[in-house]
Amino acid sequence: MKPVQWLCALVALNFVWVTDLFVLGRGFERLGEPGGLLTAVGRLTGLYGALALVVQLVLVARLPWLETRLGMDRLTAWHRWTGFWVLWLVLAHLVFVTLGYAAQDGSHVLGELDTLVFDTEDVGLATIAAVLLVVVGVTSARGARRRMRYESWHAVHLLVYLAVLLGFLHQVGLGEDFTSSPAGRLYWWALYGCALGAVATSRVGLPVLRNLRHRLRVVSVVRESPDVVTIWVGGRDLHRLPARAGQFFLWRFGRRWWEAHPFSLSAMPDGRFLRITVKALGDGSAWLQYVRPGTRVFAEGPYGAFTGARATRRAVLLVAGGVGVTPIRALMEEFAHARADIVVVYRAGAPQEVVLADELRTIARRCGARLHLVVGPRGAPGLQGLSTLVPDARHRDVYVCGPPGMTGAVRDTLRRLGVPDDQVHTERFAFAA
């Protein structure tokens, strides 16, 4: 089974377990009473919301087994999609339970809501958790997200962990799976424990351990153009760091340690140095233009499935757009070491936007690769242009990295050229944007 199938099967199995525990706990026992159906639906949506929240935590835990096979961009997209399901299920839980209790007590809905929130033990905690989830959901909407700095959005997003804690306390205090079912109690403790343990291990423990071991620092800074620099990072025992060409790290530099920036490696790791090439596109990357040698570095990763491990053929086509050439340059170096048949198409809007062209030419001469620099005001290489440059594209694994618009256009072109989707590999490195 593929990783996606394993993940879907695991989620489905837990969905069945949650439903089974609800039924065994006599969740449908009171259907004949006033408000019984509404209350049952409310309880069930609350349990499904809790399960979706656990799934969301696992997706963002950055577990190496999942992340290196599925890619951070895909896991992040699923995490976002699951988050909205969490929000709707929690709100449905609140609405149906309130309606059910109001029907049971014969009271007004607003009065019943007031009683539940302010006079019922542990429901106040759940209300705070629901409010926090709403805040996180609203700020995660695309329109709101574009108007916020990443650091501000990330700080708000951390409220999810507080919501998880408050929701769990609510479930422990009032959930019948806890109060009346030893099996349910064991299941939910194990489920929350595994999810939070995965987050603590992969998001905190592993990065701290690796940085204590490797003690990364900036070794040198090389200016490639007026707005592009290459930063060399050194440390101890870097040969023990499981990084590959095409992957990226979340980088934190010196006195601005709280700012994490996803930059892909621009050279194949050699066990001595890690190298990134950064273009000034925002406040953080602009500041890195002036970082000094000796600056302490904290790197979280490596992340990404955009690696040579996905190749199924000896022949490869590497397509880069703008600063997306950085992982493509690293992959070109790795494929050159593997003596692959390499074609590189590098698209830039203007001559001053071309980055690392001399290095690409050097690697191409050394391994006999074909390098095409396509410079001009147009967007991605068109159908006719790409078919002319690489007439055997359908017989190659294709790696594409660049702006989203270009990446989408190249994928459409490759599809029209008959290249199977499983031979086309892409990944969004700026997943936080």
UniProtKB/TrEMBL annotation:
Pfam families: Ferric_reduct, NAD_binding_1
Membrane-crossing residue ranges in chain numbering: 7-25, 45-63, 84-103, 123-141, 153-174, 186-206
Family matches, as CDD domains: FNR_like_3
Membrane topology: Multi-pass membrane protein
Keyword Protein transport included in the entry's annotation: no
Required cofactor(s): FAD
Cellular localisation: Membrane
Keyword Oxidoreductase part of the UniProt annotation: yes
SUPFAM superfamilies for this protein: Ferredoxin reductase-like, C-terminal NADP-linked domain, Riboflavin synthase domain-like
A Gene Ontology term for the protein's cellular component: membrane
Domain FAD-binding FR-type per the UniProt entry, residue ranges: 211-309
GO molecular function terms attached to this record: 2 iron, 2 sulfur cluster binding; flavin adenine dinucleotide binding; metal ion binding; oxidoreductase activity
Signal peptide: none
UniProt keywords, alphabetically: 2Fe-2S, FAD, Flavoprotein, Iron, Iron-sulfur, Membrane, Metal-binding, Oxidoreductase, Transmembrane, Transmembrane helix
Main localization of the protein described in the UniProt heading: membrane
Name recorded for this polypeptide: Putative ferric reductase
Organism: Actinophytocola oryzae
